[in-house]
Structure formats: structure tokens, C-alpha cells
Write a structure and sequence with these properties.
Layout lengths: L1 E7 L5 H12 L4 E3 L4 E6 L3 H8 L4 E8 L21 H7 L2
Antiparallel strand pairs: 1-3, 1-4, 2-3
Length: 95
């Protein structure tokens, strides 16, 4: 079991992305940083990695091993480390 973290360049339409991931991969994602940080706890296979790495909006993929299928999601571990401000920062400054 892994916690997979996907960092996006652009803010997505959250409901559309949530439904697409749930339908295509049968997992429920959680979102952080205004939707530009997606977290999924699941067994990882090449299909899942290819699914995310082929998306042009994906900036970085990171993961953390959480156990032998018995561990629950530990939530996000990594923070954005790109020099750009996050959409969460943008939303706070422009609301």
C-alpha cells in the first residue's frame, strides 16, 4: 500500500477530476493546496503511474510506502517545492 501524491501545474475543476479518477482507477482522491495536490492511498501499479504521468498538467509524482495493505492513508507527506505560488495561496490573496 502506498500514498501517492500528484502535484499539478494548473488548478483543475475538482469535481470533474475527482469523478474521472474515481471512474478510471476506482480510487477516491483527496485534494490539498487548492486542488493542485492530489493524494491517493492505494496499491500502485504501472497502469496507475502511466495514467498520471501521461497527463500534461502533472508537475511531479511522489509516494510513500504505508504497509502491506493493512495501513490506512497517512495523508499528504510532501509539500510543493516548486518556486511558483500554489493556487491555495492565490485564492487567499485574491478572494
Amino acid at each position: 500500500m502506498y500514498t501517492l501524491e500528484i502535484f499539478l501545474d494548473k488548478k483543475p475543476v475538482l469535481e470533474e477530476l475527482r469523478n474521472k479518477i474515481a471512474t478510471d482507477l476506482e480510487v477516491e482522491p483527496t485534494f490539498y493546496d487548492g486542488g493542485t495536490h492530489v493524494v491517493i492511498a492505494h496499491r500502485i501499479d504501472l497502469k496507475m503511474l502511466e495514467y498520471f504521468s501521461s497527463d500534461e498538467n502533472v508537475y511531479r509524482i511522489r509516494g510513500t510506502y504505508t504497509g502491506h495493505g493493512q495501513g490506512a492513508s497517512i495523508g499528504p507527506v510532501f509539500e510543493r517545492d516548486d518556486p511558483e505560488e500554489t493556487w491555495d495561496d492565490y485564492d487567499k490573496a485574491h478572494s
